[in-house]
Specification:
Rossmann fold; alpha/beta; single chain; 6 helices
Length: 184
């Protein structure tokens, strides 16, 4: 992540917590039945760690990673009020080394770094679940480098078992999502 990107996110979070209720993303709630709890989870580009806290309440020990210290400060304050097994990590995801076969669940929301995909695949334990949702080319006004093309998520994880997705060529949604499992 460039210094300019990191500063932009820090400014956003310094202005206030955009998710003051720490409500989890809808896709995570709608697919809670796939999250039995127990084990390790990774929340990539966690922001204020609202999804990480949700996973921790469901019984996971969570590593929540973000480059924005300001966003992680909001998370730390929430975790002081409600201690949960969430480990906050300030790191540039472009440089982050991930352990192999470690995480039972990996989640990514509103973030795209195509170079990170092979490391995410390796970090997920065999049989582990990946939930990925981010913006696509139907979203106006964003840098196209950070937008998925139709079918791109499905193609990136073609070697995984697809559980459910909206990532089709005819989708009108501004977000593409894919849920799948790493082969056992």
């Amino acid at each position: 992540m460039s210094l300019a990107d990191r500063e932009r996110w820090n400014r956003k979070y310094a202005a206030g917590n955009p998710n003051a209720a720490f409500a989890p993303d809808r896709l995570l709630l709608e697919h809670a039945h796939l999250l039995p709890g127990g084990g390790m989870a990774l929340d990539v580009a966690c922001g204020v760690a609202h999804n990480a806290m949700y996973l921790a309440r469901r019984g996971y020990e969570v590593v929540a990673v973000d480059a924005s210290l300001a966003g992680l400060r909001h998370a730390r304050a929430a975790l002081a009020a409600e201690p949960l097994p969430v480990h906050l990590v300030a790191a540039d995801l472009e440089q982050l080394a991930l352990p192999a076969d470690c995480f039972d669940v990996v989640i990514v929301f509103r973030f795209l770094d195509r170079a990170l995909v092979p490391r995410l695949k390796t970090a997920l334990a065999p049989g582990g679940l990946l939930i990925y949702e981010t913006f696509n080319t139907n979203r106006p006004g964003m840098n196209p480098a950070y937008l998925l093309r139709p079918g791109e998520l499905r193609a990136m994880y073609a070697d995984f078992e697809t559980v459910e997705t909206n990532d089709t060529a005819d989708s009108r949604s501004e977000r593409s999502w894919w849920i799948g499992r790493r082969p056992a």
